[in-house]
Structure formats: structure tokens, C-alpha cells
Amino acid sequence: MVSKPRGTRDFTPEEMEKRRWLEKEIRNIFELYGYREISTPTIEHLELFTLKSGEGIIEETYSFEDKSGRKISLRPELTAPAMRFYVESMQMETKPLKIYYFGNCFRYDRPQKGRYREFWQFGCELIGSDKPEAIAELISLSYDILKEVGLRNIILRIGNLDILRRFLDSIGARDARIMRLIDKKDYDELKKELGEEEFKKFMDFIKIKKIDEIEYEEAERMGEILSLIDEFSIPYNVDLSIARGLDYYIGTVFEIDAPKLGAEKQICGGGEYNLVPLLGGKKIPTSGFAIGFDRTLLALEAEGFEFNKKEKPVYVAYMGEMIREAIKITKLLRKNKIKSEMDLMGRSISKSLEYANKKGMKKVIIVAPEEWEKKKIILKDMEKGEQREIDIDEILTLLVNHS
RNA sequence: GCCUGGGUGGUGUAGCGGUAACAUAGGGGACUGUGGAUCCCCUGUCCCGGGUUCAAAUCCCGGCCCGGGCCCCA
Known about the structure:
403 residues; alpha+beta; BirA Bifunctional Protein, domain 2; Rossmann fold; eight-stranded mixed beta sheet; five-stranded mixed beta sheet; 14 helices; 16 strands; 38% helix; elongated; RNA-binding
């Protein structure tokens, strides 16, 4: 037997119903905020990702050479492609430019819960403004999406890299290694690196919960952003320990966790960054975030969220040799957009009802010779257990009113 | 890449050297014109490859896959 590749998944009809539902909800909220959807290729030049993230990522991507020897990679994320698209053909669009996207990504990782080799992400970019209201709206949007789809237990943390870097300058400890240790929350190692005294200063620094306790000028802008987020009625925690290893991250950073998910609990991350010049475009403020689609769904399931069930089809059963008449009826229903399914197993009426019952169908039409002679069929209500003969001409009005 | 637990019909499990079993799901029938109950029948399984043994689902080794934790998380 050939099975699916490690870290990939098949989705059952039940799962696809949930996924398509969630996808639609999230799209609607992006659109509600004035974002418009884009889509980029599944494959990109490997260079796009090494440019953004360094050579180190090569071993974590699915990359290969195509038949002309081009180095190609299955996209491990969607931000870089979206930025590439902007630089390649959207630089002259009216600002602010608000775009969002949804797609599958691939990473060569060790799979575990909430982490797959093929996974889906939603994301967006806000291009052209770094005003406090722009960042405030962006962050509010991310939180709003997760709340609106039905998550109850999520935590938004907001930090600021300018402030963090300014602090590290003040204790003479600003370098990439230190940032990485902070990012990883490896405080034991950080203590060794900074020394007892400076480490204590750091711990005091990241305990800060009110931004007005900070005297750096960057704090003023962050304060303004936070007060505008208050206007959007979004709850958050200030968390100055949020770090990012790479240089193009600037200013505001934020993360949203669903604590129920354990080790892989982060479901959203974003902030401000300066990627456009790296890709050869004209410098412009950009910010955005990405939402882990699979994890959002896992979090909903972990919270016991009740997904809407789709409407069940009307079932058309028939007796004996009435298959042609059954097709006529089914065709009529479908022509009128009434979801319907007819017996394809040649089952007896008894077995047909058993089947319809098991599938949770609410209406069954039985096509039988005696009634057909009178231009009638039997319409059975599976919940009430009642049935009656009705004129074929009446089917549509009855089913439209009853379903 | 590392540590750790695990893989038995479609699904959930028992068996843990000696004829693979139970439940459930699937198909049919009892009920040739009526569902949810009951009963009967049928289909279908030891992840893969080596090794040990008279004998391996069972023990050993390797691989693959799944879960949990690291690393990483652009």
C-alpha cells in the first residue's frame, strides 16, 4: 500500500466541511476590513526565501532543481511571496494597500501536533502606512478574526523591537546572539551571557506592563498604538520579551496564543518589517501577520466548538423497476437546487430507509408504481415518521417550504 | 537531526512464542411496499524488511508512519 508522505494529511468530508467553513469566515472578516485577496504560486525561486531568512533555511524547505537547473522551493511561508508580488507588480497601487492571502505551505520539519509538513496559512500585508492607527487596526484585525470565528480562550501579546534594542544598547548587549536567546526564552543561557547584574536589569525590563514606564522616545509611538487598540476594544498584554532574530523586523511585534494547544500554541504572529528593499523595491512601511489555519481549527476543536452541520439531501428511494421514474424526480429536484440523492445500490425500501436514517436525512421520497399511476409519490418525514401521498407537481413547493 | 511512547480488519481494542479474537462500521437477509430494536450470514486485519526459533502479531535489529517533548520556527 502506498501511504501519504510524512507530515501530510488527507481530509475527510467532515473535516473539509469544517475547513471550508473556517476559511470562509476568515475571508469574510478580512474583506470586512477592506482587504482584498491575492494568490501566488506554490513554487518560488529558492533565492526568495534565502534572501529573507538566510541560507540556513534551505534544509528546512522542500527544494529541488527543475529541468533547466533552476533552484526551486515549495513555499515555506507566504509573506515573502506576497512581498515579491508587491515589488514585482503592485508598487504603483494606491496606498494604503491592503491584501490578504490563504494557501498551503511546506516545511521539512519533524511533524507533531499542530505542526505538519504541509500546512495552511492565512496572512495579510498592510503596505504604505506606519501610522499608529494603521498598526492598531492591523493588530485588532488579527484578534477580531480569531474571536469572530469562535475562539474564546486566546491571548494577545504586544512588544516592540525598537524599544527592546534600545534597552539592549543601554546595557551594551545588543547583538544577534542575544536576540536569539531572548526569542527562544533561554534565560539560563542569557544569564550567563549578560552576567548577573545586567540579567537582573533585563528581567525587570521585560516585567514592564505599562508602556508609560518607559522613557525612550519609541515608547511614545507604542503608547499611541496601544491607546488606539483600546478604542477597538481589544484586550492585550504588553510583552517586551518578544524578539525576532532577523534584522528586517522593526517596531511593533505581536503574537496570539491559544494556550490549550500546548507546545505548538502560537496561532498568529506579526508586526512591522522592512522587507521591500531586500527584494529590490522602493522603501515603504509594511506590516502584516500570519494565522496558522490548522492550529486555529485545532484550537476550536479543543474548545469544543460546535460546527454548523450542512443541510442533508432529500433522499429518493424507489420500488422494483422504478429507477427511471426515480431519476425523473431527482432531476427535477436538482434542477430546482434542492440537494438530493437517489438510491444507487438497488436497495429495498426497508434498506433505503435504514440508510437514509443512518445518514440523518430528514425527507425521503418513495417512488412506487401504484402512486406513480396517479401521478403521485410518497413523501416521508423521517423525524416525525409520517408520510403522505403528494402530487408530483406539489413536490417543489412542499420541499422548499419544509427544508 | 535528538529523546520518548506506540503501530493487530475501515475505526476502537484483546492476544504478548503454539490454529488471530471481540466490538463497531460496511454489504446482504429475516421483512418480495416502509427506518431507528432484534437476530442471522458475508467481506475484511497482525506497518515493511531482515534475524532468532521446530514455531513470531508476540523476542531482536533496521526502516517507515503516528503521538508527546526538544532543535528549529523564516
